[in-house]
Amino acid sequence: MGVQNIGIIGMGVMGSNLALNIADHAYTVSVYNHTPRSTENFVRDHAHANIIPYYDLQQFIASLEKPRKIMLMIVAGEPVDQMIARILPLTDAGDIIIDGGNSFFKDTQRRTQVCREKGVFFVGMGISGGETGARRGPAVMVGGESTAYEKIRHIYEAVAAKADDDKPCCAHVGPDGAGHFVKMVHNGIEYADMQLIAEAYLLLKEMGGYTHAELADIFHDWNTGELHSYLIGITADVLAETEDGGSVLSMIADRAEQKGTGRWTGIEALAEGVDVSLIIAACNARVLSQVAGRRRAQIVFPRPERGQVKAADFVEAVRKSLYTAKIVAYAQGFALYQKASQTYGWQLDYRRIAEIFRAGCIIQAKFLDTISTAYAEDAQVENLLFHPFFTGKIKEGEHSLRQVAALGLAAGIPVPAMAGALTYLDAYAGPCVGANLIQGLRDYFGAHTFRRTDKEGNFHHVWREHYKR
Ligand SMILES: NC(=O)C1=CN([C@@H]2O[C@H](COP(=O)(O)OP(=O)(O)OC[C@H]3O[C@@H](n4cnc5c(N)ncnc54)[C@H](OP(=O)(O)O)[C@@H]3O)[C@@H](O)[C@H]2O)C=CC1
Ligand SMILES: O=C(CO)[C@H](O)[C@H](O)COP(=O)(O)O
């Protein structure tokens, strides 16, 4: 008869740190890894009275109290299916398998069905906060049956980060794939946020001529105001870091990698018909940073001469631009939650999602408090941009964003996310966006019909050929 409170499979960065975090909260933890070496190294380097290593999967499962709580913290994709296939025969009805990795939410929906056939609960859990979060308190987004959540919540709410009001950053957000969907979009917003920060950095460095040390001070200063966030804070740290007297950032290759959650967000948004242009711009920026032809393009297409604008008001304009565009990025991400919630019938609680993002996760930021308040005031707000606080901030920052993006474009500095934020505003708020011509063309070549401004219904026009080809 097993006695350990929970089992964790996967002794990588996240699994090992979560095991320690859970063990620190007086829960007993069995750990297992598909290769014994990772487990051996972990228990050698981090001996803990509440952690017991297992090198045999059957013994690991047998060590757990019932209903068993078995958490996977392993590489997403095929390994998760393979591990479930190995675990399921060893489980009993009522046991709970928790996937804490960045799994694709549709895989989670499928796995939920597979486990349900055996009476086993499957919980798709989004976890954010990286290594430090896992060790000291992550944000936890739980998808699955509420019966299962009730059995595991005491553990995860204990280890999760706590917001300023002491509420745990852990919530049951909906059934099956909802937790992984919420995490996927969190990561998409993370991509957009980091891209905007990178654009602000580039503008200040290339046009303002600031050194990395000076920029570290600027970002540090920004982090004391409305931009206060984990990402701005660590940007200051990265900028300030030196090795042998030189900037570490200057030594990092200018090529951004990705594991795919941002890309999934873009694909799902396109499928849902929601514009997440800043997330897609961020994905494209990472893709383009990797292309082999960059060196050749630098020679073939020299960029325009860059003037210098080293002035305090330029720094402030960039700060305002970053904040304004960031609001658009978050509004787009939350619009995707709203649409997906309808599509999948999840009844997502946007206020609670914003609340659990207030601490522990990578996108934790001061203004998540305001997003949570906005949804508390109007749970069905059509778009966050219509909340008076954000409307005011957009109006306040739009001019700076326009000036800064235009400066970047004129100087040949790529600002796809900042420009994307403006384009989004212009398309959203513009009286005519050219869609009338698109409809005319579609009707011309394909008889796709169009709607009229003066009458209800769908119309086809018999177009005349005025110009001979
Ligand atoms: N790092 C981060 O900041 C965050 C990561 N995540 C997600 O958490 C999950 C784990 O990430 P992380 O800990 O960083 O990754 P690591 O690469 O540090 O660890 C991966 C773990 O998966 C195990 N593993 C690899 N292949 C298999 C397999 N075929 N079968 C079983 N186990 C396997 C590895 O074992 P071994 O090394 O012995 O092969 C290792 O224990 C991923 O889904 C990741 O996307 C979520 C939030 C934040
Ligand atoms: O989930 C995370 C944080 O929330 C991970 O850090 C994520 O893997 C980062 O994504 P990518 O590697 O694609 O930049």
Describe this structure in words.
The protein is α/β, with parallel strands linked by helices. The chain folds into three domains: 6-176, 3-Layer(aba) Sandwich (Rossmann fold); 184-429, Orthogonal Bundle (N-(1-d-carboxylethyl)-l-norvaline Dehydrogenase, domain 2), CATH 1.10.1040.10; 434-469, Single alpha-helices involved in coiled-coils or other helix-helix interfaces (Up-down Bundle), CATH 1.20.5. Helices cover 55% and strands 10% of the residues. It contains 20 helices and twelve strands. The chain has helices spanning 13-24, 36-45, 57-62, 78-87, 105-116, 130-136, 146-159, 178-206, 212-222, 230-240, 248-251, 261-272, 277-290, 294-300, 312-344, 350-356, 368-377, 388-411, 416-429, 435-446; strands spanning 6-9, 29-32, 51-53, 69-72, 96-99, 121-128, 139-143, 170-174, 242-243, 246-247, 450-451, 458-459. The strands form three sheets. An eight-stranded mixed sheet has the order 3-2-1-4-5-6-7-8, sandwiched between helices. Helix 8 (178-206) packs across helix 12 and helix 16 (350-356) runs antiparallel to helix 17 (368-377). The chain is globular, with a radius of gyration of 25 Å. The termini are far apart. The structure holds NADPH dihydro-nicotinamide-adenine-dinucleotide phosphate and ribulose-5-phosphate. NADPH dihydro-nicotinamide-adenine-dinucleotide phosphate is lined by residues 10-15, 33-35, 38, 73-76, 79, 82-83, 101-102, 127-128, 130, 259. Its EC number is 1.1.1.44. One of its GO terms (biological process) is D-gluconate metabolic process. One of its GO terms (molecular function) is NADP binding.
